[in-house]
Structure formats: structure tokens, C-alpha cells
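Hey, I was hoping to borrow your eyes for a little while. I've been staring at a protein lately and its backbone has me curious. You're getting the sequence in one-letter code plus the fold written as C-alpha cells. Would you mind checking whether the C-alpha cells look sensible for this chain? Here's the protein in full, and shout if anything looks odd to you:
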Amino acid sequence: MNEECDAPDGGPVAGSGSGSHRAVIEVRRLPGWFAAWRRISIRLDGAPVGRIEAGGSLSIPVAPGSHSVDARIDWVATPPLELTLHPGDTVRLELSPRASGPAGLLVGVLALVRPSRVLELRRVSGGAGV
């Protein structure tokens, strides 16, 4: 399922009068069994901007500049990913569990001991420095 959201405050993106004056962050959640039946919240600059189901994606229009993106479900969260976007940039991110296969069976234990190590949010392409 693909979703698109407004600016984090619910209004239009600053400078969004023209598509070339804004930037976009696209987050894709890879399929997997960790919390597969639940949506994971995506936060931009500390504010929730949407939720992604397993195999889904979220497109977030943003004003150019520096932004912090993280993902959270219950007490499990990714470390913030710091991004710098210029007008017209599209940055693609992927969200996935850090462990898969047989090692994925330990995710429940890992969630209790090191919750910041359960999910991984990584830049796949786009933006400055890529």
C-alpha cells in the first residue's frame, strides 16, 4: 500500500507552490514477519507523519533542508537518520528488521535488551552525498 502525506503539521509543504521547490522522502517497508500484522510509525523531525504496513511505502513531501527521520513501534525505535535535502531531491529509505531467518527468532529478546537494534532504517538512494 502506498500512501502520501501532507507536511508534518497537516498543511501544505513550505515552498510547495512549485514541485521543484520541495523535496520528497520515500520510505519503503520491506516485507518480513516482525510486526507483520501492525503498522510502524514514521516520524519526521520528532513528529509522526504516517504509518507503514509490511510491504508498503510512504511518500513525505518536505521543505528542503535538514531533517531527521526515524521509525517506531511501541518501545522499539530506529536511531534517527539525519538527511539534508535540496529542492527537487527525492531520498529513498528502506525499513526492515535487522535480523531475519533463524536469527529473527531472537528479535523478541533483542527488543527487550536493545530496542534500538531491532529495526533498521537506511538510505537507499537520493539526496546530497549519495
Q: What stands out?
A: Helices lie at 107-113.
